[in-house]
Design brief:
83 residues; 4 helices
Length: 83
């Protein structure tokens, strides 16, 4: 078995856990695979803006708009934290 490291993906999931609890990994996986059409290990900094947009769009049906916007903004901010 080969373990593939995906530190950016892990950061996004860890962040999502704050807002979505145990559903975070599944939620993030759906956004990445369904909307970005890549595997989680392929996630790169240049994908974060689009991912943040989808996180907002998809999470605002699960939480209030302010929390969904905060979540999206924090996903975008990962770009500046990792550059």
């Amino acid at each position: 078995m080969v373990l593939v490291m995906a530190p950016l993906y892990d950061e996004v999931v860890d962040l999502a856990r704050i807002y979505l609890g145990p559903a975070a990994k599944r939620f993030v996986d759906r956004q990445i695979k369904g909307h970005l059409e890549i595997d989680s290990v392929q996630l790169k900094l240049s994908d974060l803006d689009e991912l943040a947009t989808w996180c907002y769009t998809s999470s605002k049906i699960l939480m209030n708009d302010g929390k969904a916007r905060e979540f999206s903004d924090r996903v975008k901010a990962l770009n500046s934290n990792n550059s």
